Amino acid sequence: MTDDELVNEAMLARKMAYVPYSHHAVGAALLTKSGKVYRGCNIENAAFTPTNCAERTAVFKAVSEGEKDFEAIAIVGGPVNSEKLHICPPCGVCRQVLREFTNPKTFRVILGATDPAETKKMVLEDVLPYSFGPENMDFV
Length: 140
What we know:
- Helix 3 links the parallel strand 3 and strand 4 (108-111).
- It is globular, with a radius of gyration of 15 Å.
- It has a 5-stranded mixed beta sheet with strand order 2-1-3-4-5.
- It has 4 helices and 5 strands.
- By secondary structure, it is α+β, with helices and mostly antiparallel strands.
- It is 26% helix and 23% strand.
- The mean pLDDT is 95.
């Protein structure tokens, strides 16, 4: 799957967002190493704390179905009822969840925009430097 195709999957996921408070719809498409794509959207809640981001929705869907080997994620975001998308990087919590299941040196993060020339491509390590991972949990 190309990066552009993955961004298109994220755009489809964005259409399912439930955002009655922020009116900022986000979609994510998580590509597994087996080639399967899991879509996620942000799902808001009036209490705000239970709100779930698109990236975590996609990861949790994949993990709940037995997938834990991920290759890339595409993320898009922008105002509801607008085709205008801007760079929408994952929040800190989402970055940490992605780190739990990926190699930060190789896992690709694609931040889509309305103008494909503005799309940003990087690896998770660039988005989350000095991350905390399973190797930091040495209790021996």
